[in-house]
Amino acid sequence: MLTRRGFLAAAAVTPFAFGSVPSTIPTRMPLKILLDTDIGSDIDDAVALAYLLRKPDCSLLGVTTVTGDAVNRARLAKALCEAAGKSIPIFPGLETPLVIEQRQVYAAQAERLTGGTASFPKGQAIDFMRTTIRQNPGEVTLLAVGPFTNIATLFKLDPEIPHLLKELVIMGGKFSDYPTPWGPTEWNAIVDPHATAIVFSSGVPLRAFGLDVTWQLSMTPDQVTQKFKGDELLEIVLDWSRVWFQERELLHFHDPLAAAAIFNPDICKYKRGHVQVELEEAELLGVTHFQSSPDGGIRAAESVNADNFFQEYFSVFSSVDDSLIGRAF
Ligand SMILES: [Ca+2]
Predict the structure, then answer these.
(1) Ligand 1 centroid – CA 13 distance (Å)
(2) Is the pLDDT assigned to residue 181 strictly greater than 90?
(3) How far apart, in Å, are the Cα atoms of 26 and each of 7, 12, 53, 147, 232?
(4) CA of 27 to the centre of ligand 1 (A)
(5) E-only strand ranges, 16-78
(6) Does domain 30-324 have CATH number 1.10.10.10?
(7) pLDDT at residue number 156
(8) What pLDDT, on a 0 to 100 scale, did the predictor assign at position 318?
(9) What is the per-residue pLDDT across 264-305, written as a single tens digit (0 to 9) for each?
(10) Which pLDDT band, with edges at 50, 70 and 90, does 22 fall under?
């Protein structure tokens, strides 16, 4: 008979041998993640980072920031990492798009930060990503949830990187006609359209979560206030969300969906195809034209199970009221 001790030992060695194991035991080897983020503008980057920091089988190898005010974005990331008791390498990245003017200049949520100014390595974000991926060939998932300037620059600098990644997972683009307020455009894709084009044509194993799907996951300020209480990280995010809610009525879980789907891909259904990025028509720069194809290298989310997403997201925060988990908002 298998004793509890034997069960735990066996589960640790052969993690997939059992249908159900205690939640304190990782059910698989930690996944190696690099996060590239424009934390500090939309609040959802912080929501995603809190999840990654609490996810037991997430090995967060580092955080790079992108778009204007990159140092303040790094400060925000550092504040959450430190609150989680984790020492994560953080590098401010590129602040200017490859060709066009920067439209995302400030990290507004940095006004909520207290304490002194931290210092960060300067001009090393791309080298950091490159070195980390080369040291872990085939093992790193690069999660990009901001405009793609850093990623495109990395791919241009070292064209082998797309083939050394386990996967590039992005929040960006729009891949159906699902109604959203800005027509066919999506912010991450249009802020640096030339970078977006480089990423989609790189040949990297790419899973994309577009605005047409992420738009379907949202909470009101009251719901956020209710749900984000009881966990230190979520309470920090709740404080920062007040800056966001000064101008917006909802918190959409764009970036958290991409993060959660790394660990639980079945939250979404996907369609395979090719993406061509608009670089000709001035009004449509950065629009992502999706074409279905069974041999396409891009998997774009085409639907999301909201109940399953919220279940996965809040499951990592042990202090959140279980009775509220699994409700779609
Ligand atoms: Ca973002």
Answers:
(1) 37
(2) yes
(3) 14, 8, 15, 32, 22
(4) 29
(5) 31-37, 58-65
(6) no
(7) 98
(8) 80
(9) 999 999 999 999 999 999 999 999 999 999 999 999 999 999
(10) very low
Q: Provide the pLDDT for residue 100.
A: 97
Q: How far is the CA of 12 from the centre of ligand 1 (A)?
A: 35
321 contacts: CB under 8 Å, gap ≥ 6: 230
* Domain spans of the chain, in order of start: 30-324
pLDDT in tens, 140-151: 999 999 999 999
In angstroms, rounded to a whole number, what is the distance separating the alpha carbons of residues 221 and 243?
A: 11
Q: What are phi and psi of 190, to 5 degrees?
A: -95, -20
Rounded to the nearest angstrom, the distance between the alpha carbon of 47 and the centre of ligand 1 is 10
Angle, in degrees to the nearest 10, between helices 193-200 and 149-157: 50
What sign for the dihedral angle of Cα 248, 252, 254, 255?
A: positive
**How close is the Cα of 327 to the center of ligand 1, in Å?**
24
Rounded Cα distance between 179 and 184, Å, is 9
Residue 236 has pLDDT above 50, yes or no: yes
What is the Cα–Cα distance from 228 to 233, expressed in whole angstroms? 9
In the predicted structure, residue 3 carries a pLDDT above the cut 60: no
Say how far apart CA 219 and CA 328 lie, in whole Å.
Answer: 9
- Measured in angstroms, how far is the CA atom of residue 64 from the centroid of ligand 1? 12
User: CB neighbours (10 Å) of residue 131?
Assistant: 12
User: What DSSP designation does 167 have?
Assistant: E
Residue 213 Cα, ligand 1 centroid: separation in angstroms?
15
Identity (one letter) of the amino acid at 261? A
Distance from the alpha carbon of residue 7 to the mean position of ligand 1, in angstroms: 41
Closest CA to 255 of 8, 47, 23, 7: 47
* pLDDT for res 329: 43
- The answer to whether 303 and 269 are in contact (CB under 8 A) is yes
Phi, psi of 155 (to 5 degrees): -70, -35
309-325 pLDDT tens trace:
999 999 999 865 555 54
